[in-house]
Amino acid sequence: MKVKNMIIGALMTVIAAPVAAQAQQDEIMSQVTTIIKSGAPDALKQVQALEKLHKKDANALISIGKAFLAQKDYANAKVYGEKATKVDQKNGAGWVLLGNIAVGEDNGGEAAGYFQQAQYFDPKNPDGYRRYAQIMSKTDPNGAVATLEELRRNCPDYPVDLIAAEIQSEAGNMAKANEYYSRVSLDKMKDYQISDYATNLFLSQKYDESLKVATAGHAKFARNASFNRLIMFNQVENKNFDAAVVAGNDLVNNSDSLKMSAFDYGYYGRALEGAKKYNEAIDLYKKMQGDANMKDEDKINANKSISDCYKKVSNFAQAGEYLTRFINAQKQTSFGLQESVAQLYADQVKDESTAAADKKVAYDKAIALYKELAEKYPDNAVYCSNQCGNLSFALPGSDLEKLKIAAPHFENIITILADKADRSKAETNILKTSYNYVTVYYVHVADNMEKAKELAAKLLELDPENANAKAILGVQ
Fold first, then answer.
1. Which of 36, 272, 293, 304 has its CA 20 to 30 A from that of 89?
2. pLDDT value of residue 141
């Protein structure tokens, strides 16, 4: 029993020694950081006084250097990095510190040299390999990979695949990064690595895989905004809107250090709209417009989203107001922008909750706008007439009453397309439909069989199997 206790005591000494040493290094770095940030006139002398207590301890000197590096005081950081390598040349951390200083000074060549020194003098320290591979990944990816394999040989227990994944991700090689990440258990990854993996998968449009990784990250780091965000993004892309709303709520209300982006608002808004929570979506978009961190362009675009949501709850007055705000903020007008106003009136006509009198008012406004657009954009004249003709069938009344209103619009299409030499297949299909409606109009509304037969004959040339045309012409 006595022997067993001695063994346990020895093991505890071995474990406690590095822990205590690390604690001391952290304490020194904290002390130096406090001194530097104090701005005291004798700050440097205070640091030098602390240095005297540890002048033969390379790790202590490295900690002092790290404190200066964190404040971007590269000159003083380098002084202590060089002192550390003189005290203990085989301590790779000193060379890594000098390499990191060179990186901060944007001197990649010098940094690479220091990281190679770290590998040479301290081959069991993974940081030299890792940092060298990181800075060489874009200029010499093959060399970076070779370095990582050397790291694997010297430190077989080190998570080389994770480092390789990070390097490939930073270099923009998402597929390669994902390949390396897939080799490592998520339990062995840190939060930022899981987030990077899930992000890469999302950007690669592998939504199910990304969701799985992000969900695992959320289970470990429930208040991490990245995982709440990625779960929401993926659920929206998979059209699982109820689940996306839950994730959106977590993002907004249960995340630490959250700074909402336009993407966050946009995806959360899409989630709420997909779940038919239109009023909540409107509130969210308005909140976005009040967010000082949002760009003016994003705030302007939110007006269109608000308009769409108001339209979904049949509030066409508010929908029109926000659509107007959106259009007025555009630098250039276009057919699409102007047509969106006509389409809003058309949607009001089609809405079942719209009163008959209001339908007629909205219909007249839509028709007037489409006629104006047809004159302004002649290439879209057929489209505009087709929209008007089809919209007529959304008016109250009998089918024949609707057809009477629609017929002139379809006749206009026939006038434009009947003799067009370079008519497209889509235009031909529209022309067939127009002939069909107008033919029926002349039979049942205008009571003009001569005109109906004339049109039916032309329809039969385009569509030999058309039943209406055959019936009117008595063709078997």
1. 36
2. 74
Residue 244: which of 258, 259, 256, 233 has the closest Cα?
233
| Contacts of residue 134, Cβ cutoff 8 Å, sequence gap at least 6 | 144, 163, 166, 167, 170
Domain presence at residue 167: no
Number of structural domains found in the chain? 2
**How far separated are the first and last CA of the chain, in Å rounded?**
110
Residue-wise pLDDT tens digits, 166-214: 888 887 889 989 999 999 999 999 999 999 999 999 999 999 999 999 9
Q: How far apart are CA 236 and CA 367, in angstroms?
A: 36
Residue 157, domain member (yes or no):
no
What pTM was estimated for this model as a whole? 0.77
CATH code assigned at 284: 1.25.40.10
Query: Which residues are CB-contacts of 413 (< 8 A; sequence separation ≥ 6)?
Result: 382, 385, 386, 389, 430, 431, 434
Q: Could you tell me what percentage of the chain is helix, strand and coil, using 3-state DSSP and rounding each to the nearest 5?
A: 75, 0, 20
The first and second tokens of residue 109, run together, are 């060549």
pLDDT digits (tens, 9 = 90+) for 307-336: 999 999 999 999 999 999 999 999 998 999
Are 69 and 77 in contact by the 8 Å Cβ rule? The answer is yes
What does the alpha-carbon distance between residue 79 and residue 52 come to, in Å, rounded to a whole number?
14
CB half-sphere exposure, 455, CA atoms < 13 A: 24
